[in-house]
Amino acid sequence: MELPAGVTTRTLRPDDARAVFDLLVDSQTLDAGEPSVDLEDVVGDWQRPSFDLATHAVGVEDAGRLVGYAHVANGRYADAVVASTHRARGIGMWLAGWTQAEAKRQGGSMVGMPVPVASDGDHLLERLGYHVAWTSWVLQLGDGEQIESQPLPEGYAVRPFRPGEEHAAYRIVEDAFNEWPDRQPVAYDDWAARVVRRPGFEPWHLRLASDPDGEVVGVGYVFVSGEYGYVPTLAVRRDRRGLGLARALLVDCFAVAREHGASRSELSTDSRTGALGLYERVGMRVTSTWVHRAVAL
To answer: I need a labelling partner for 255 at 20 to 30 A (CA). Which of 15, 39, 149, 279 fits?
Structure first.
């Protein structure tokens, strides 16, 4: 697929993070009703040691303005976005082709990306033969709403992380998430780039559940963006599940976010986890639905 006349591509630089963030906000507002990304998310993604911005990403420009962006990570996971002003001109199709070629170059056998249900991107990828690998939901707890507290078993505690516990937290999260199908392991430094090395990180962002011996057995990660407290990670060690630790961590994450200025709470989950019903039962409501569409290379 050729790009429209006058539209060009270029290598991205770290100082393009703001322009890419603006593109994502524009696209997500149109397709999902509101954005679910921070500038710090873009910077965290780009600073992963496994990610090479110069080769793993591409920018599309029109008259010196960035109007499209795509990247591929680990030969499998892509993201692509086109400015609302430049849709239906073939840029999205070109980016889809670029992500397939880049995933192949990285040694991948399948590539996929998240798109809001019924969005322009969803329709395009469906036409190109991408199947739905899994479904994701963004859920919200509204202003003034609370989740009923969960008593902890005797001797257990939920607290902020302490410097030096980064690897323990990472191991809990990585082991739990590796139970999901079609999930690639994440190296510690890549995890750290998005969490403890994310711009603006503070110790209260990482919440740890510890057992009577002081061992870390559960992890919640929370940060505040505008009026929202967002929880991108919640994980409990397999042998300590069923004790209410996940709910206790969730209640703690939302409470500490409100202590730091959030009026609403939000998280996402997907069909690989089976956790949607749990979040709905504690009073959270689905605000947007996404699908991860993928295609074999």
So the answer is: 39
β pairing state of 264-270 and 228-236:
parallel
Question: Which residue pairs from 149-153 have beta carbons closer than 8 angstroms and sit at least 24 positions apart in sequence?
Answer: 149/248, 149/251, 150/244, 150/247, 150/248, 150/251, 151/244, 151/248, 152/209, 152/243, 152/244, 152/245, 152/248, 153/243, 153/244
Q: Which helix (H) or strand (E) element contains residue 40?
A: helix 39-46
Nearest to 195 by CA among 227, 232, 163, 162: 232
Residue 99 exposure: Cα atoms within 13 Å on the Cβ side: 30
For the residues of 119-149, what is the DSSP string, one character each? SHHHHHHHHTT-EEEEEEEEEEE-TT--PPP
Q: What tens digit of pLDDT does each residue of 59-117 get?
A: 999 999 999 999 999 999 999 999 999 999 999 999 999 999 999 999 999 999 999 99
